[in-house]
Amino acid sequence: LTAVAPPAQAAAAAGTATDDAKAWLLRIRDAADKRNYQGTLVISAGGEVSSSRVEHYYDGQGTFERVDGLDGERRRSLRHDEQLQTLWPANRVALIEHREALRPFPALPGSGHEQIFASYEVKLDGQDRVAGHAARVLLLQPRDEARFAQRLWADTDSGLLLRSEVLDAQGRVLESASFTEVRIGVRPQADAIAKAMKQLDGYRVLRPQTLATSLDAEGWKLAVPIGGFKLVHCMRRVFDGGGERAGGPVLQALYSDGLTHVSVFVEPYRAQAHKPVEAAMGATHTLTQRRGEGWWMTVMGDVPIATLRRFANALERR
Questions:
Q1: CA dist., res. 70 & res. 64, Å (int)
Q2: What whole-number distance in Å separates Cα of residue 286 and Cα of residue 278?
Q3: φ and ψ of 142, to 5 deg
Q4: So what's the pLDDT on residue 103?
């Protein structure tokens, strides 16, 4: 009994730590949707820094959000649940899309927490302060080389994600997002956002046509599964905004490991427009290549370039 007790106690402690980490991930997810907050968000990636003003409200039935870019060309995003409008006031252009899978900071993509724990070891990593708020720190270490580590700072009172970092294998920060100031629990102003979404007079409105589909229906298959990643959705998009891509169908398959995404795009090959590329911007890597005689593939995501190559090599034409 003496020999067995210490391992049993250690297992119990490990189980408690895992339960605590799961509870924090659930709090982070729920706070991103159901808390009312306003703040200034700064994103740093690949030596580039951008900032934006964020307003997020929950009225008990749906979420409303306004994001105003504070750098470069003026841009505003308005969102009600999955309906997203992106406005460029200088050019009077509005892009309207249905976005159900990808949510920006401070949301965590997806809801598959068991999937996260299958691909990452999640540990509580102390306490800190961010933008004047006490925060709990979580470290998510990948269980293989197919993904990057992440560190998360969550507000201890509300669970709202205040800061995140993507780390390479050596622990260096590739990309970060952080509130520099944020007010949590503000009075909701959902009506103001709903009203703004109806004021598109004078804008040229672009609505990419989308059709839910499957790889199999489009004549493709992922011959070799990429460990930890599951297909979230698959759609065919037709761009109607003019230019060389106008009217060209693009197949998009979106994969997630519960924490990060990889997007695979397939479209008809155009010699003048398409050149092979391998590029990185912070944690986001992009790989493009020709597939067969008539197809062009783009794979991108916040994962190592080797993971993108695995996706590209696994996708086959039936």
A1: 20
A2: 6
A3: -65, 145
A4: 73
Residues linked to residue 93 through DSSP beta bridges, in sequence order: 88, 204
Within 13 Å and on the Cβ side, how many CA atoms surround 85? 24
Q: What is the pLDDT of residue 153?
A: 97
Cα gap 195→193, rounded to integer Å: 5
Residues of the chain with pLDDT under 50: 1-5, 8, 10-13, 241-247
CA distance 44 to 4: 49
Is the separation of the CB atoms in 293 and 134 below 8 Å? no
The string of DSSP letters for 6-49 reads: HHHHHHHHHHHHHHHHHHHHHHHHHHHHH--EEEEEEEEETTEE
Q: Which long-range contacts (CB under 8 A, 24 or more apart) does 70-75 make?
A: 70/40
Q: Which residues, at least 6 apart from 95, have a Cβ–Cβ distance to it below 8 Å? A: 85, 86, 87, 206, 207, 208, 241
CB burial of residue 77 (10 Å; 0-12, 13-18, 19+)? middle
Within 8 A by CB and 6+ apart from 170, the residues are: none
Tens digits of residue pLDDT in 237-261: 876 544 444 447 899 999 999 899 9
Model pLDDT, residue 133: 97
Tell me the pairing of strands 204-206 and 93-98. Answer: parallel
DSSP string, 199-247: --TT-EEE--EEEE--TTTTTEEESSPPTT-EEEEEEEEE--SSSTTTT
- pTM assigned to the model: 0.87
Distance CA 311, CA 109 (A): 20
DSSP secondary structure of 132-157: TEEEEEEEEEESSTTS-EEEEEEETT
Q: What is the pLDDT of residue 245?
A: 46
Distance CA 68, CA 12 (A): 47
Place of tokens 């990060």: 260
